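Hi R.,

Here's the chain you asked about this morning:
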Amino acid sequence: MRQSNYSKLTVTDLHDLFLEAAQTERFLPAPFRKQKMSSWPEYVQSWSAYGWSNEQVVRIQPTSEQIDRLDNAIDLGLLLSKEDRQIIWAAAHSAVGRERGPKWVYLSKLLGKSRHSVKAEYQAALVRLTWAIDPRRPQNLQMRAGKFG
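And the predicted structure, written out as C-alpha cells:
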C-alpha cells in the first residue's frame, strides 16, 4: 500500500490491518536462535507416541504481502503519539489467535484503567490515526460497534 492509498483507510480497515500485522509478527522467526540455550530435545506429548513418530514441527512463514502490510502498519503507527501506539499494538497483540478480539480486561489491568476506558481510548486512537492520515476527512466517521470486540 502506498502513501496515497492510506487516505482511503477507514477505522475498521485500520483495526483489521493492525490485527493482521500482530499475527504476522508472531509468524516471523525469533530475533536470536534458541538452539544453544537449550539442550533438551523436542518430544511428542502423547504416551503412545514415544519413539514412533516422524512428525516435524511445522513453522508457518508469512507471505511477502503480509510482511508488506506489517511494514505499512509500522509506518502508520509512527504517525501517532507513543501512548496511542502502545494501546493499538497491545490490543492487536492481545487479539492474536482469538475470535472475540482484544483482551480488554487484561489490557485494563496492564494500563491501570477500566476496560471500557481502554476500549474507548483504542477506538479514539484509531480515529486520530485516520485524521493524521487525511486531515480533510470528515470527523463524523461511523464505526461498527461490534467490530472491535
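Residues 3-28+59-137 form one domain.

Let me know if you need anything else.
M.
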